[in-house]
């Protein structure tokens, strides 16, 4: 584990294909489609973030509007410091693969990530290494999430390509791979490709 | 065989022996770079296959793309789809295979199998072409380059001359250039002696070229081995041709069978043709002279009555005979018969080109070509039979070149003319035809199917293409290749003398370098040739 990686959240619910994590800081959510990782012994599980939300700690209590007399949004939190204790930011993650002994495998790990595992942001080198093989796209495109999967796939490819020395080459290769995956679903392929910028 | 990676075009995905092999193009192969007629090799697990591309198509995995194709500005989408969801395929007809121990010794063999799935398809390399068609040598004559390739394509002319052959193509597609090259090849490789009935005076001396200066003829390139005969001395002199003999025909050389062939051109009735035989029987060798005299002597009625010929039939015949007699090169009797002279030259190994000069009308051409050929053929037949009986070497093969072949070989007359006989009986008597024509559909089907090697330039009439391909396996594939040849300087050769069909660009003819190249005698460069010398 690279200790310089930024720790951002903690796993609160886990399954083999994905997990939920709560951020340590309110609103400090990773961007849609960014790669994160959790440690499980020698294993490192790599996942992509999707479907982030900020809500009340207690499911029955809905936040109410408090800013009628405030000038800025920040003033709302300044006037009501308890809010930071009553709200939480959390996100869902879809597992894209795992590593063992510094080698990446682009299929599901044998076991799900443990609850309360720390969640770290992957650094650019790790992202580039992980995405050397485009096989992770199979798991990414088959993920069932609340948000449209086209959005997730496009966001993830945009995020990863920024970590490559030649983003355009990576995006083109990923596009070709997607065309193989969506061989009989042109509308979906088209939606994703139109969301990728070279 | 090692192939350069950049020559890989795609992989085999389906197919059958009868309908050809379908290969999917690799995503980095542009469908625009593939052309029909290209030769390819397919590397199977245990064998290598040689074939020709005969169709190309665009395919898609999802019909939805056809409804919403990438729009202008969506280049990235288009570039991703290209080669993945949309892709190109090519249809390949396999012809030869190489692989088993047996074929390694004997060379490529005809296909009886097809390559397995995902066998890579490569553009045929230069060494592949040499393996299949042979290297330039004493027997193999360099005829051109396969389309888009620099390697020399060779034709085994000693094999070529053992059958009657045809050169076809629309007017202005380069038939004459091709034929001239083949004649030079036959001369240079010493495969046979040529007798050319040169209707438009293009082979012996100067030949014309569209939008360019004239090209040299055979006599100019090989003066000592080619002799030019002429029917029209004046025209030859005007064109400054050095002729060896001026041909005159005696009426007494003309036989009823020669008239029969002219039935259509002279507008003779069947009865008039039948009358010629009766006249010949009655008057002997000088029958034409006597028949013409008959009219002026006023004894017509009695003679006609005794021969049972109707007056109208006689008049019809006389009109026809007068057309022949008006030809300036005919006279009642000549001292030196052209046929003897031609044979003398041919037997001494000289190639003969007979120029027609101004007498380009079809009557003169048919009359002279048929008359000379019939006698030459019968002399050749006698000589061959004698040689066989006495166990001597046969006379040197003779190739007779005729233009406007449909006039001699159309279904109505092919059964009667000597050319029909030669085309059918083929090589038995060492005499074969080189047929040049622009309307192959006008030639008798039976004759067409007997032609050994056919070289065809562009043809666009469906009927003509069908008749050229008659009797050819994998016909439908070659059809598209013939129809897509360029109007100039492209041809397809297939049949007896080539192991597989190949589209090619005929070698250059007309530049100073090309004359020099043609002038060179072929090098003896393979062990087999040396063996032959011993």
Give the total of beta strands of chain A. 7
Please report the number of helical segments of chain B.
23
Counting copies of identical and different chains, the oligomeric state is heterodimer
Q: Mean pLDDT of chain A, rounded to whole units?
A: 91
Strand fraction of chain A equals 25-35%
Distance from first to last alpha carbon of chain B? 33 Å
The biggest sheet of chain B, with number of strands, parallel, antiparallel or mixed sense and barrel status, is:
12 strands, mixed
Structural class of chain A: alpha+beta
Annotation, overall tally of beta strands of chain B: 21
- In total, the number of domains of chain B comes to 3
How helix-rich are the residues of chain A, as a percent range? 25-40%
CATH class membership of the largest domain in chain B: Alpha Beta
**Total number of domains of chain A:** 1
Determine the most extensive contact between two protein chains. A-B, 19 and 15 residues
- Can you tell me the CATH architecture of the largest domain in chain B? 3-Layer(aba) Sandwich
Question: Would you write up a description of this structure?
Answer:
With about 200 residues, chain A is α+β, with helices and mostly antiparallel strands. Chain A is about 30% helix and about 30% strand. Chain A has helices at about 75-80, 85, 125-130, 135-140, 150-160, 165-180, 185-195; strands at about 5-15, 20-25, 35-40, 45-55, 85-100, 105, 120. Chain A has a 6-stranded antiparallel barrel. In chain A, about 35% of the residues are buried. Mean pLDDT of chain B is about 85; it is low at about 525-534. In chain B, helix 11 crosses helix 14 and helix 15 (about 340-345) packs across helix 16. In chain B, a hairpin with a 6-residue loop joins strand 8 and strand 9 (about 155). Chain B is of the alpha/beta class. Chain B is elongated. Chain B folds into 3 domains: about 5-125, Elongation Factor Tu (Ef-tu), domain 3; about 155-250 and about 335-534, Rossmann fold, CATH 3.40.50; about 250-325. Classes of the chains: A alpha+beta (about 200), B alpha/beta (about 525).
